[in-house]
Amino acid sequence: MGDILTFTLHYDGAFNKNSLGAVAEAARLASELGGEAHALVLGDASSELCATLGGYGAAKVYRVAGPEGLSQPVVDAMAALVGDRGFAYALFGGGLLGFEIGAGLAARLGAGVAMEVTAIGVRDGRLIAQRPILGDSAISEIEFRGAVGIVIGRLNAFDVPEPTGALAPVEDVTVAFNDYSTRARMVTRGEQRGENVDIEGAEILVAGGRGLGRAEGFELCEALAKALGPSSAVAATRAVVDAGWYPYAGQIGQTGKTVAPKLYFAAGISGAIQHKVGMASSENIVAVNKDANAPIFEFADLGIVGDLNRILPKLTAALNARSSG
Amino acid sequence: MSRDRGPDREKGCPLKVCVLVKEVPDAAVRKRIDPQSGRMDRSGERNLNPYDTHAIEAAMTLREGGEIEVDEIVAVTMGPESAVRALHKAVSLGADRSVHLCDATLAGSDVAATGYALAAVLAREAPDLVLLGQQSDDGECYTVGAVVADHLRMPSLTQVIKLEVSGEGLRCERQAEYGYDTVEVGLPAVIAVGDAINEPRYPSLKAIMGAKKKQLDTLSVGDVGIDPARVGGEGSAARWVAAKPPPAKAAGIVIEDEDTDATVAQIIAWLDERKLI
């Protein structure tokens, strides 16, 4: 028995990329375990959309009516499915809801949970999860005792394959939610704050973090981006977006966008894992930070320990002098 | 339990808030894995998790905001004897008293076992609101809130960056996969807050000096009815079986900016070499 259940998040008529990666990864692992990958969709999704999960490897899709965008109704639904149909593992793609659901499900089922997982293997008919720890300076291997194991992937950990076009059967399942699972109520979802900046097409990104010190610090980033050429844009970390210094559309990381530009210039960014997962695939990473202990220096190709307020204006001026000279 | 804290909590009843806190390694201390056990070496731990200071500040903001009466703020931790320092810090930042779950049986608990044990302590306190920091500085386990909530059968939300009293519940804002979400949560509830929610205050000298005099209850596993078979390394269902180094990556160059003109010349040469400018 090696069936794997995944949760597939959807919004605005499309599935989340990390969820699709999780379906494909579950299908790969289930075939090694001699089982099937099944997917749960919660809320208002068309049968046509649900069936497309077959193209990523889902053998079956369960659709449960319920409130979208909150974790606890999904915990109820997954616990019911695990109880009724006996899944050996639950797998989640990276993202906020996956963490909440996976942890809640672990509590409900008395199951073990591994999070921030970057790779999963099979050994002796059981899953082994790999999780980088200590600022990615080591990788730990985690295995599970008990009937069910729960694996939560790191953002972008699982590749999304081209869909095969196969369609999965969709079964509607009714779940009775716990009273406490419905005592959180979504008022507004997916609000975009600030103007719409486009960072995904840029070849060069100048990203600003808390080290800029204040919202006006982004002027230094804008000036540098301009000096770096027409295919440059300015991006930001979650911390400064939450602080209102930069629009949400320009945010990189766990709850923002994932980018892989030719050059990623990080100004005043510490490089916490939640940010790193959104930009680590960049071809070249340059970081300026006054804290020599900042984690970003562990993975920057060129790191400068210094004051960005001194370095950025001079760098911008030098680049401008070069292009006009 | 002294009063009903269920969903039909009496209107206008003062709030009891528990804040989960944790001792973590000082950011300046290099973290490492004990090669014998494969577990995090926690011997260098000595600070209150910085994220937890935001949770305490959020409790203080509710108390001082005046929209709802907060009659007690209790700091709760699980950890070895040294963790009392995190509790003293929490009290100096505003908690009225603290509870320390301290038992050798708990060593090596995974996040699910830790959440189970903390929930047992919290059930004894019967709070209307449990606050915690969205993640800890060490294991980055930003999941313990969801575990605790499920055991307590309370609604829960993590990464909350704005918290307001709304009717008999709370109106919370957070960043999720598709933008900012606003969610109303009924009490009692478990809320993990993000660091954008507030700027934690600095404790006054008087508060620091007075912290050791405030009530601190030390509890063992037996005191709160924790099943010893469900905690500790042996009671944890997720087992760390090995740790290995990550795939080798070419180390980057790090330069100290001493002469900015020279630094800028180096950056430009580096970019030029890679045809990035």
Question: What's the short story on this structure?
Answer:
Chain A has helices at 17-33, 47-51, 71-85, 96-109, 218-227, 238-242, 273-276, 308-324, and strands at residues 4-7, 10-11, 14-15, 37-42, 60-64, 89-92, 112-117, 119-123, 126-133, 138-144, 149-153, 170-173, 184-191, 204-208, 232-236, 263-267, 284-289, 302-305. In chain A, the strands form 4 sheets. Chain A has a 7-stranded parallel β-sheet with strand order 7-11-6-1-4-5-12. Chain A has 8 helices and 18 strands.
Main sheet characteristics of chain B: 9 strands, mixed
The third-level CATH topology of the largest domain in chain A is Rossmann fold
Integer average pLDDT of chain A = 96
- Domain count of chain B: the total is 1
Quaternary structure classification: heterodimer
Low-pLDDT runs of chain A: none
Major sheet description of chain A: 7 strands, parallel
Keywords, separated by commas or semicolons:
heterodimer; A: 325 residues; alpha/beta; Rossmann fold; 5-stranded parallel sheet; 8 helices; B: 277 residues; two-stranded antiparallel sheet; disordered N terminus
How does this model look, in words?
Chain A is an alpha/beta fold and 325 residues long. Chain A has 2 domains: 179 residues, HUPs (Rossmann fold), CATH 3.40.50.620; 121 residues, Rossmann fold. Helix content of chain A is 27%, strand content 28%. Chain A has a 7-stranded parallel sheet. A 5-stranded parallel sheet of chain A has the order 15-14-16-17-18. In chain A, α5 links the parallel β14 and β15. Chain A is elongated. The mean pLDDT of chain A is 96. Chain B has 277 residues and is α/β, with parallel strands linked by helices. Chain B has one domain: HUPs (Rossmann fold), CATH 3.40.50. Chain B has 7 helices and 13 strands. In chain B, the strands form 2 sheets. Chain B has a 9-stranded mixed sheet with strand order 9-8-7-10-6-1-4-5-11. Chain B has a two-stranded antiparallel ribbon with strand order 2-3. In chain B, β7 and β8 form a beta hairpin. In chain B, α3 packs across α4. Chain B is globular and about 70 Å long. Chain B starts with 14 loop residues before the first strand and ends with a helix. At the A-B interface, α3, α4, β7, β9 and β10 of A face α3, α4, β7, β8 and β9 of B. β13 of chain A pairs antiparallel with β9 of chain B.
